[in-house]
Structure formats: C-alpha cells, structure tokens
Amino acid sequence: MTIEIIPVPDLGGADKVEVIEICVQPGDVVEEEQSIVVLESDKASMEIPSPKSGKVIGLKVKEGDSLSEGDAILEMELADGAGTEEPQQEVTTNVSEAVIVADSSAESATKNVVSESSEQHIPVPDLGGSDTVEVIEICAGVGDDINEGDSLVVLESDKASMEIPSPVTGKIIEIKLKEGDKTSEGDALAVIMVVGASLPVTEAVTPVEEQPVKASTGLPAKAPMALPAASALVEASSADVYAGPSVRKLARQLGVDLSKLKASGPRNRYTKDDVRGYVKQLVADVNSGKVSNGAGIPPIPAIDFSKFGDVEIVKLSKIAKLTSANMSRNWLNVPHVTQFDDADITELEKFRKSMKGEAERRGVKLTPLPFLLKAAADAMRAEPSFNVSLHADGEHLVHKSYIHIGMAVDTPNGLMVPVIRDVDKKGLWELAAESTEMATKARSGKLMPRDMQGACFTISSLGAIGGNGFTPIVNAPEVAIMGVSKAQIKPVWNGSDFEPRQMLPLSVSYDHRAINGAHCGRFFTHMVAVLADIRRLLL
Ligand code: CAO
Question: What is the DSSP letter of 3?
C-alpha cells in the first residue's frame, strides 16, 4: 500500500489561489485526471485533476484556503500499479486543460523586441493538450481597442471552456476565427496593431505562418509577454454555477449573484450578456417601480395567496402600473409634510346652491371643485413658494408665472390627473365646465398627453366619497397637493355660542425641500379665508 500526498501543481506563476470547491471526500475512489479541487485566482478558475488513481484518505485543504504550488491537497492511497516514482513534472503535465502552465521555454523564448506600433499575429495558445476545440464566443471585434488580458475568444472542449486573452495591448485588425470554428494550438487567432513602447516578444507573438509556436499559457504567465492563460471556465461552485473568470469578475463587480440568473450559453454556461441582461432588467424594474430603488428598502416578498384560499389574478392596467411607479418614485424622493385645516364653506355652499338654477340653464354642474380651484390659484399668487419646482440640477428653484392645476380623477382604469390651465384667469362657470369636460374625457379614455402635463399644483377631491382627511402624495415635480375630504356640519364656537357651520376638511402635503411650514401656514390661511368668503377673490 503506497500512501502519497497530492500537491498543488505548477499554477503557471499564480500564487495564493483560493480553493472554491472540493470535489472529493475521504473514502472516494478517484481516477487519474478526475477533478479533486477547483481553485480560483482573480484571472481564472482551475480544476485540479488527480495525477494518479487511488483512494482519498484525507483532505489537507478546505474551501476558502489559499494555496500555492507544492501545498498539499490530499492524502491518497495509490491504486495498484500507480507508481510513486513519477517525477514532480508529471503532476504538472497531468494538469487538465483547465490548468494552464507557464513553462520555462516561454522565458527562454524572449528574444526579439517589437518596434513601436507593429502588427502582431496572435496564435491560439497552448490549450493544455486539447485539440480541435470549438470557438463558442468572439469577445472582441475588428477596430476594437484591446488591453492585454482582455478576452479575445472563448473556446470550449468537452471538458472545459477557456477564455483566450489578448497577450498584447493594441487595436484589433483582424479576427481569424468565427463562432463554431474548430481550432488548435498555433492556429491563427487575431492580428493586433500594437502601439507603444518597445516590448520584448516571445515566440508566441511570432507570425503563425512563419513559425507556429508552442505558446506559454501561464496564469499569469511567468515569462514577460508570454501568452497569458487560456483561463478555464469550470463548473465552479456547489450552486452549479458554470462561468468563466471574466464573467465571474463582471458579476462580482456588479454585485450579481450568478446563481440567481439563467445561463444562456452552451451547456448552461453563463455569459457576460447574461449578467448584463440581468442588471439591465433590474434597472428597468427599479425605474418602472416594480422593485425597490435600491435605497436599502427590501422588496416585499412574493406570496402564493392561493395557499390560503381561492384567488383571481387580474392584470394591472397600463395606467395603474404608471401610477404605481409614479407614486413609489414620489413617495421615496419627496420629503413630505402634511398640514390640515378646516374651511368654513357655509356661505360658499349657500351661494353655490343659489346658483343651481342658473347652472342648469348653462348646462354645467357647479360643485365645490371650481371654487377650490379658484381659491388655490389665489393662494398660490399670495404665496408664490407654492408655484415652484426644484430644478433638476439640485441648485435652483424654477418659479412659474402661470397657474395650471391638476385635478385627480378616479376612472375605471385608474387614477388620472388632467390639468386645467390658467386657472387664475378663468371664471367659475368656465372652470366648472372645463373640470366636468376633463373628468368626462378621463373616464372615457380620451385625454391626450398634453391634457395631463404642466400642472403646478394638484387638487385631489374625495369630498363626494367621504372621509375626514388624508395625506395625499405630492405629484413631483410639483411641490404641493391639496386633499379635499367631505364637508360636514360641525358646531363652531363663535365667541358666545356654538354655531352649526359647514366645515370642509382640507389637507396640504408639500415637498419640504421647497416649502417650509411657514409658507404652508400662509398658503393655508389665505385659502381658508377665501373659501370662507369668496368675495375675497375680487380683492
Ligand atoms: N364635501 C361634500 N360634498 C361634496 C364635496 C365635498 N368636499 N365635493 C363634492 N361634493 C358633492 C358635490 O357637490 C356633488 O353633490 P351635488 O350633486 O349634490 O352637488 C357630489 O358630491 C358629486 O360631486 P362630483 O364627484 O360629481 O364632482 P366634483 O366636482 O366634486 O368632483 C372629480 C369631480 C372628478 C374630482 C371627482 O368625480 C373624482 O373623481 N374624485 C376622485 C378623486 C380621487 O380619486 N382622488 C384620490 C386621489 S389619490 O388616490
């Protein structure tokens, strides 16, 4: 019985490489070439195959350890016939194609100097013994500027995928391979115009036609300018993540957990596009309000409600989805303050009711809304801090001279906010007619985009429905919104008695970045005074 320690083979110069997966356990019978651990440097993932057949007696490493060449991986009882005399070199050469070795010949191969700006023919490097390997991805195009170490192509054998990085920095003049091609070491891969200082050149960058080479493929290469590693792609984690180093790196940079997305590459291999697509979708979801905006707010977990009883899933209307996105955006962006007050509309209501006959003759319905519009416009003139928007540059306020007011309309498809323009310049009859027309258009889906743009302030009236008060959400970039609840007769102290008065509960939410409590206090006082005595509109 021969017991042998299996060491980490030559890693092509890589040092302190992390163990990301252990593929065998004590007691396992391992064949020669069978993977025993997976190591990952910042450039490549490598499956380390067993150099011998035998039984694993004990592990000398655990996941997360950092290993260098020669460190013990495991203890193995060799199978009959598996000799112990094989030189250390054998271990190195037995490393699968996933481990690419920078051999010493590369160092001695440094012989030339590249002049500034030279056209270099890049061959397919040593593929660790693999032959006729398929090109599954071309990572760069003609005209691209490429840095040394950036991937040129991805090759895939039946055992591993390998990213072939550029050995030089320059501009790509030609890519000699296309997806689906079968290629082997020494085949022409690309032509790159190298611009820069004089560089030592190895055989690896000698034109292939003249001198096909055995390029060194270290991780990174030991020799200067030796072709860098054909970085291996391996099934590297217990979560079945099958991705190459550059894909993993991109995922790490963007904070993407690969196990959360679908792989679209051959044999479920993750591609950079998978990572980019995932991030793009996330951004789109955030922008559309489907998920948290990343402000540290965890999304609400998905629940299968059918576990608790019958349910019906109904698709949201386009308007409902838009409203949802806008509400979330406004709620999260705007620091809201809501202030409340009651307006005494006893006299206003007397007047409004006295006008009913005339309203009918004119063919309009005179509800409290036109009075509210008019009073709001008047209060905005009196307190101009309400007629502003925060400039997108975060450095200025936009003061508006016009007064356009949005009115929230409840429609079968969801909430819509048509805008009544120049409210300050219109009379009550005109406002009554226009608000009825806008509400009708909204409910019949006839509003045009322009009808919903340009508001400086919004009124949301639930007066006909009920409630004592609510806190409306500011419709940014407007800076304030008024909520109207149901008017009720309440006892009001007049100095000597309680008097029955018709009181209208109002709330004003404002963006505290643009409006202070004092501004709102003045705005509200003005508004309540106008509603209590609409003759003030004439002042
Ligand atoms: N208190 C008591 N009664 C009120 C009132 C109030 N604050 N406001 C309206 N009323 C009365 C009206 O006077 C009318 O009664 P009469 O027919 O006896 O005069 C009745 O309620 C119905 O009014 P209306 O709804 O037809 O008209 P309106 O001008 O008050 O409102 C509109 C128009 C479009 C604002 C309203 O129909 C609407 O859609 N409101 C919902 C807005 C909304 O959903 N806001 C929430 C947004 S956030 O989710």
Answer: E
Tell me which residue range forms the domain holding 373. Answer: 319-538
Q: How far is residue 490 from each of residues 15, 203, 367, 500, 532, measured CA to CA in Å? A: 82, 96, 20, 5, 15
Whether ligand 1 lies within 6 angstroms of the CB of 369 is answered as yes
Q: Is residue 398 part of a domain?
A: yes
The answer to whether the CB of 128 is under 6 A from ligand 1 is: no
Q: On the CB side of 63, how many CA atoms lie within 13 Å of its CA?
A: 9
Q: Atom 45 in ligand 1: which residue has the minimum CA distance?
A: 460
Q: Angle at which helices 517-532 and 368-382 pack, to 10 degrees?
A: 140
Active-site residue, 512 included: yes
Query: Which atom of ligand 1 approaches the CA of 504 most closely?
Result: 7
Per-residue pLDDT of the chain (539 residues; tens, 9 = 90+): 789 999 998 887 778 888 887 888 899 999 888 889 888 776 667 778 899 999 999 999 998 899 998 999 999 999 877 654 444 333 332 333 333 333 333 333 333 334 456 889 999 888 877 788 888 888 888 888 888 888 888 887 766 667 788 888 888 999 999 988 999 988 999 999 887 543 333 333 333 222 222 222 333 322 222 233 333 433 333 345 777 767 877 888 888 988 888 888 766 778 888 999 999 988 887 776 666 555 677 888 889 999 999 999 999 988 899 899 999 999 999 999 999 999 999 999 999 999 999 999 999 999 999 999 999 999 999 999 999 999 999 899 999 999 999 999 999 989 999 999 999 999 999 999 999 999 999 999 999 999 999 999 999 999 999 999 999 999 999 999 999 999 999 999 999 999 999 999 999 999 999 999 999 999 999 999 999 999 999 98
CA gap 349, 196 in Å, rounded: 85
Cβ atoms of 188 and 208 closer than 8 Å:
yes
Tell the residue nearest (CA) to atom 36 of ligand 1.
409
Tell me if 443 CB under 6 Å of ligand 1: no
The reply to whether 406 and 480 lie within a common domain is yes
Q: Is 124 in the pocket of ligand 1 (CB under 6 A)?
A: no
Q: Are residues 162 and 263 in the same domain?
A: no
Q: Is residue 497 part of a domain?
A: yes
Give the predicted TM-score (pTM) of the model.
0.55
Among 399, 512, 519, 526, the one annotated catalytic = 512
| CB of 144 shorter than 6 A to ligand 1 | no
